[in-house]
Amino acid sequence: RLAMPVLWLEGEATCKPPRAVARRLLPVFSDVRFKRVAGAGHMGPITHASVVNAEILHFVRALGGHGRLGLAA
Question: Three-state SS string across the chain, please?
Answer without folding.
Answer: CECCCEEEEEECCCCHHHHHHHHHHHHHECCEEEEEECCCCCCHHHHCHHHHHHHHHHHHHHCCCCHHHCCCC
